[in-house]
Amino acid sequence: MNIIGTWGGTKKQRELAYEVVNHCINVMMPRMRTLEVCIDLISDGMEHADGFCLARTNREFEVLIDKRLKGDDFITAITHEMVHVKQHARGELKDTNILALKKWKGDDYIAMYSTVDEYMELPWEAEAYDLQEKLLESFKETRASQ
């Protein structure tokens, strides 16, 4: 059974984060049952990003989300980072022991960038930005039909 934990933020934010993470797992990784996802809703250290995904292993993840985000921005920050969870869990994206070197679907990439355009061209980010909106919409549809 997957384990989802939420910390920080308000009770309402923690409950929403739990729902969004559960939805993302059901949509992108429906057969995975051994994931551990810890969602930390914080503000310290979140000056340059809305969220971060830290893969401890290919089944254990810490996701940091800026708790100051509101509405759809809060949800899409979570869906974006959950795409990275999926990428690591499926072995599509792998961190290496070499600083700034990542493997994406078997190919080596230098994960350094100096512009927003360079960042958006990283293939794992391109996928995350594409899927975050689709996941937001499917989450809203699912929630509305309940």
- Low-pLDDT segments, ≥5 res: none
| Residues in β-strands, percent | 15-25%
Largest sheet data = 4 strands, mixed
Helix/strand order = EHEEEHEEEHH
Descriptive labels:
three-stranded antiparallel sheet, alpha/beta, four-stranded mixed sheet, 7 strands, 25% strand, 4 helices, globular, 146 residues
Fold and architecture overview:
With about 150 residues, this protein is of the alpha/beta class. Helices cover about 45% and strands about 25% of the residues. It is built from four helices and seven strands; from the N terminus they run E-H-E-E-E-H-E-E-E-H-H. The strands form two sheets. The protein has a four-stranded mixed β-sheet, covered by helices on one side. The longest helix is centred in the last third of the chain and has 22 residues, at about 125-145. The two termini are about 25 Å apart.
What is the fold's blueprint, element by element?
Blueprint: E1 3-8, H1 11-28, E2 36-42, E3 51-55, E4 60-66, H2 71-89, E5 93-95, E6 101-104, E7 107-110, H3 116-121, H4 123-144
Parallel strand pairs: 1-2, 2-4
Antiparallel strand pairs: 3-4, 5-6, 6-7
Helix pairs in contact: 1-2, 2-4
Structure summary:
With 146 residues, the protein is of the alpha/beta class. Helix content is 45%, strand content 25%. Helix 1 crosses helix 2.
